[in-house]
Amino acid sequence: MATQRALLVEEICKPLVLVHDRSIPTPRSGQVQIKVTVAGLNPHDQRSRDTGLLIGDKLPAILSKDVVGTVSRIGEDVTGFRVGDRIMSLGSGAVMDSSQSGLQEYALADVVNCTKVPDNISDDEAATLPTNVSAAFVALFDVLQIPVPWEDSGTTPSAILIVGGGSNCGKLAVQLAKLRNIQQIVVVGGDEMRLKKLGATHVIDRHLGEGAVVKRIRDAAGDDLIYALDAVNMPQGLGVAFKALSTHKQGKVARLLPVGDVEDRRGHDLLDVLGLFLYHNPPCLGMWERLTGYVEDGAISPTSFSTRQGLEAGVVNAALDEYRNGKNKAKPQIRIG
């Protein structure tokens, strides 16, 4: 049996361990095998290692759901991909299947959750997209139920509020809102010049204080605002979104951190974007079919990253430690091949 190198979580709250005898997974029907070049790390990977998030009963486990590489084998019933194609994939999270995770030399991908990497971006740039663009897409077009960009049916909202513009999900949500032709894209937090280049119409300094931030949102969007996405806050920080929504229309706040409740919702709905929503979700599957074209056209741009070299325990554990200690300024990408 062919084997490979892989980084494993063998014990919760312990460093990842490099092994050299992990079996190379074989693609099943509807899957391809990827020779991994880049595995992207996200905050939930640190929480998985240190708290057992999603993997506590599935050890040993492999982390990283942002996987980029070249197709090395093709399973049955697969069309549209060939050996040698450069692709990016969102590794399966529905059953936390480690065979689809990135911190190994070869991984599997469901063809419905991957797409070709266009020539105008690098593998490192591509690895910034799968998890974050999927989360932002599901938040806007499934949870908030804004009509998807490629359909003329439904009504395009006049305005949306995005809290957490400095986050990667926030930046991608801005681009998706622009793709949907939402006219007023009001963002709290993040670099104003960068966000306006991506499509934001108003960028508000999150440090102004809640009252001043809410006033500026209302000055920009008026009293008809009914859609908000909070990409960064725990319950205590969600007040801005609820207070900024319309006083006479039912509104919705989608949040990417589904922890705890909010007592004062001002009559509006609080909706959670759960990780499992990202996989085999009909609107999200439609996005995967179009993502290559969106990136080629410049409608979707990669976010910031820092490259780390080598499938080495010390390299990856240090990157996860930086997430734990709040020191990551850019998404760490692990160069494997």
Automatic annotation (TrEMBL):
Belongs to the zinc-containing alcohol dehydrogenase family. The keyword Oxidoreductase applies. One of its GO terms (molecular function) is oxidoreductase activity, acting on NAD(P)H. The keyword Oxidoreductase applies. Gene3D superfamilies: Medium-chain alcohol dehydrogenases, catalytic domain, NAD(P)-binding Rossmann-like Domain. Monomer. SUPFAM superfamilies: GroES-like (SSF50129), NAD(P)-binding Rossmann-fold domains (SSF51735). It comes from the Eukaryota. Keywords: Oxidoreductase. Pfam families: ADH_N, ADH_zinc_N. This is Enoyl reductase (ER) domain-containing protein. Residues 11-316 form the Enoyl reductase (ER) domain.
